[in-house]
Amino acid sequence: MSASEASRESALAGAAGAGAFSVGLLGFGTVGSAFAALLQERAPQIEAITGRRPVLTGALTRSSGSFHEILDGAEAIVELIGGIEPAREYVLAALASGRHVITANKQLLSQHGEELFDAARRAGVQLRFEAAVAGVVPVIRVLCESLAGAHVERIHGIVNGTTNFVLSEMAGGSSYEQALAEAQRRGFAEADPSEDVSGKDAAAKMAILARLAFGTPVHLDQVSYEGIEHLQTDDLQYARELGLGLKLVGAAERRDGGLSVRVHPAFLYSGHPLASVNGPYNAVTVESQAITEITMSGPGAGGPQTASAVLGDLVSVMLPPAAGGDRHGAPRGLGVSSPDPLPLVEDVESAFYIHMEVADRPGALATVAQVLGERGASIKSVVQHGLGDNARLVMVIHPLLESRLRDALLRISELDFLRSTPRAIRVIEEEFT
Ligand SMILES: NC(=O)c1ccc[n+]([C@@H]2O[C@H](COP(=O)([O-])OP(=O)(O)OC[C@H]3O[C@@H](n4cnc5c(N)ncnc54)[C@H](OP(=O)(O)O)[C@@H]3O)[C@@H](O)[C@H]2O)c1
Which domain holds residue 392? Predict the structure, then answer.
């Protein structure tokens, strides 16, 4: 018997006695095995809080367990398989048969959220997924419960710990390749990190947050995302001279009467709450007129950390309604569409950092300023590095529509003194000092 099979057997050893709350677990990997261990360890405390002792009555892996037997013996199902199928089929079957479901599956929620919310509502059971976004940081609960009455204007999040670690290393002088290799060595990045570094993982999480904060269904396909693969160490160095730090930021915000949801690298001024979040951490800032700004931060991944968020959801579904539980689809408001869903908007204004390698000719800066000016952009700050053929112009421009910026960059790249394609990175201008 392998170590994983032995730990699964041991987690299932305690029979569900009278009054026990039976939990069926789908998936016994990094998070599933940590959840099983934590459940056993915390069962007495959970019994003290909820009046019932949670007991694991079945665990499914690829090679062991039967989904239907686990479902029959469980009051709640915890889905920690990941991916779309068979997770979707199992979650829908569990909801339809009246079981509460807890999942950490951001792919599933960002692509089939509406189907799952409808199934939970129809069956009058709870679907909870705190661990799907920002690991142990309780952002779902805060958005759906504490801030349920707030008119959220904007969410900014560092919701991928792998990329935040890589960018922190690059800020210290490492190249992208060195930083990624270090992340893999320390277990912060998977062998295939493409979902993380491309921004797709963060996009799935932003789709979920946007759905909850703005009551507007957002599918992963509707979130535009850019990753960190093309960033260069000198972008971070020049940015520091301009008083900026570089993060992979997810944004969901009201813009021009609609909702913009996107993920991209962004420079932040030091007064922004996300600017000081370094290493493999996650943080989410929520802005609303009534609350100004709140920021939550903490570990974004890891077996025990994620398992802790899953266990918090389990306690919530075990609580009787009078104690804060809700049999009719909780957290309250979760999955409820706004009566006025917002249209999704794509072309939004941003301030930009622009990096250009230029031959040091008289009038180069004036020509670039003219091209930008013709498209409505004005320069906020500019630094010139080097002389002669090694000169670089690094500038920050005031907010401009992204389509106009693209047009300006195309024109600038045709100028005869440009030595390579100009690079542009968005700048988030809010500061809360
Ligand atoms: N790892 C993290 O730090 C983290 C953080 C936040 C959220 N999450 C989310 O948590 C979920 C689980 O992640 P994880 O890292 O624990 O994954 P994992 O280590 O790959 O474990 C997946 C488990 O699911 C089982 N499984 C896979 N396909 C299956 C199938 N077709 N039928 C039955 N069982 C199947 C696997 O079985 P075998 O044991 O037989 O392979 C394994 O036990 C994912 O949704 C992930 O996005 C993870």
Answer: 349-427
Is 205 an active-site residue? yes
Q: What is the DSSP string of 279-317?
A: SSEEEEEEEETTTEEEEEEEE---HHHHHHHHHHHHHHH
Query: Which residue, by CA, sits nearest to atom 42 of ligand 1?
Result: 29
Each residue's pLDDT expressed in tens, for the chain with a length of 433 residues: 677 777 777 777 666 676 899 999 999 999 999 999 999 999 999 999 999 999 999 999 999 999 999 999 999 999 999 999 999 999 999 999 999 999 999 999 999 999 999 999 999 999 999 999 998 899 999 999 899 889 999 999 999 999 999 999 999 999 999 999 999 999 999 999 999 999 999 999 999 999 999 999 999 999 999 999 999 988 888 878 778 899 999 999 999 999 999 999 999 999 999 999 999 999 999 999 888 899 999 998 899 999 999 999 999 999 977 555 454 444 444 566 777 889 999 999 999 999 999 987 888 999 999 999 999 999 999 988 887 777 899 999 999 999 999 999 999 999 999 999 999 999 998 777 6
CA distance 419 to 391: 9
Domain count, the chain: 3
* Separation CA 94–CA 105 (nearest Å): 15
Name the closest-CA residue to atom 5, ligand 1. 301
| Pocket (CB within 6 angstroms of ligand 1) | 27-32, 60-63, 80-82, 86, 104-106, 131, 135, 301-302, 306
Residue 328 lies in a domain: no
Burial class (CB in 10 A: 0-12, 13-18, 19+), 355: buried
* 266 and 196 share one domain: yes
* 382 part of a folded domain: yes
Residue matched to tokens 């100028």: 415
**Residue 379 belongs to some domain of the structure:** yes
Which residue is closest in CA terms to ligand 1's atom 39? 61
57: CA distance to ligand 1 center in Å? 18
Residue 245 lies in a domain: yes
